Description:
Glycosyltransferase, four-stranded antiparallel sheet, 16 helices, globular, three-stranded antiparallel sheet, mainly alpha
Amino acid sequence: MNYDKIDKKARKILQENDRGLYTVPTKGLYPYQWNWDSAFAAWGFSTHDPRRAWAEIETLFTGQWDNGMVPHIVFHKQAIGYFPGPDIWNVERVPHTSGITQPPIAATMARAVYEADKHYGRVHMELMYGRLVSWHRWFVKYRLHEGMVVITHPWESGRDNAVDWDAALANVDGSNVGEYHRRDIDHVDPAMRPKKEDYDRYLALVQFNRDCGYDEDHIRDHGPFRVADVGMTFLFLRACRDLLHIAVELDHGVDEIEGWIKTLKQGVERHWNPERGHYDSVDVRTGAFTNSLSSASFLCWFAGIKDDRMLAHYDRIVGQVGFGIPSNDPKDPHFNHLRYWRGPVWGMVNALIGIGLAETGHTVHAERLRKQTQKLIAEHGFWEYFSPLDGAPAGGPQFTWTAAIWLTWASPHAKGRF
C-alpha cells in the first residue's frame, strides 16, 4: 500500500473543499460551513498548514451569537437549492446562521492546533480563548440538566437519526411542516439518509425554535424535544478539560472551568444505565433512558473517564464487525448498516474513541482500532461513512473530516494522538 500517495490524496481533499477561510464537508451535499466538521478540518490542516488551521476556527466563530452560542451552520455564501437554508432559519445576523448548535469540540481541536505549533499559535490561541469560554458558558447556562448536556434538536448531536432520539421524536408532530424538497437525497441514495417522517419532525422543531425567537428559556420549558445526549456530555467534558489546559498555558483563571468539569463528571454518573450496563442518553421529559448503545457511549474514554465496564461491550461489537465501532449496536433491532447514524461506522468517531482508549491505558485496543480504520480508508476511500460489515462506502465522497483524521490519526505517518 502506497501510504504517501494516500496522504497526498487526503491533503488534496482538504484543498478541494477549501473555500478560502473555511471548508465545506464535501462538494454539493454540504455547501456551507458546519461546526464540528470545521473543527476536524482545522485539526487536519494543522499537520501541514497551521495558518490555515487557525483561519478555519476563527472563521467558524464569526457566526458566534451574542449569547455565546456557536451555531451548527454558518451560511457564508448562498447555495441555491440547499434546504433548510438561511431563509428557513430566519436568524437576523450577518453572516447568516442556523439556530442550533453542534458538538462543542472546537476547544479540543484548537488545543491540538496550538500544540502543533505553539510559537505561531500563541497569539491565535489568545484571541480565541475568550470566544471558547463564552460558548462553554452558554452550554452551562442553557443546556445542563443535572450535569448532563441537553440537546433540543437531533441535529445538535451530530448524530441526526440515531436510535437515541426515536422515543422523544415520536412526541413531535411533523404533520404540518408544509411541502419541501431535500437536497441531500439528490446527492445520496435515500436508503442511506434519514427517512421523510424523521425529516418532518426535524423541520417541526426548527419551526418551533424559530417561532419563539430561539428563546432558550421558552425552549427549555415548552420545547417538545429535550434529551440529555451521552455523546454531547462526553465531548463537552473533554472540551472543558482541554480548555482548562489552555487556561493554564495562557495563565488565565481556572476556578470556573474546574467547576464545570466537576459538574459534568457528576452528570456522567447519571448517564450510566444500570439495567443495560452502559452509558446511555436520557429523555429529560420522561426521565427514561433511551436504551441505546451507540458509538457515542464509547466516547467515555475520550472524556477522560477511566471506566473498564464498557470494554466488554466494546470487545463484543468489534468482534462482530471489522472496521471499528458502528453508530448503533449490531444486535439492536433497528440496526441498519448503511443508514446514516443507525449502523454505519464513521472514521472520525473511531479516531476519538481510539485516542480515548490510548489515553486511558488501553493501548492494544487503541492500536487495533487505528489499524482497522487505516485499512478501511486505504481500501475504500475518503467517504463520509462506511458499512461496518463489509466496509462499503456510503454518504458523501471526498469527505473533509475523513481526510482530516487520516492525516492526524489513521495514516502510518500520523502521530495518532493529540
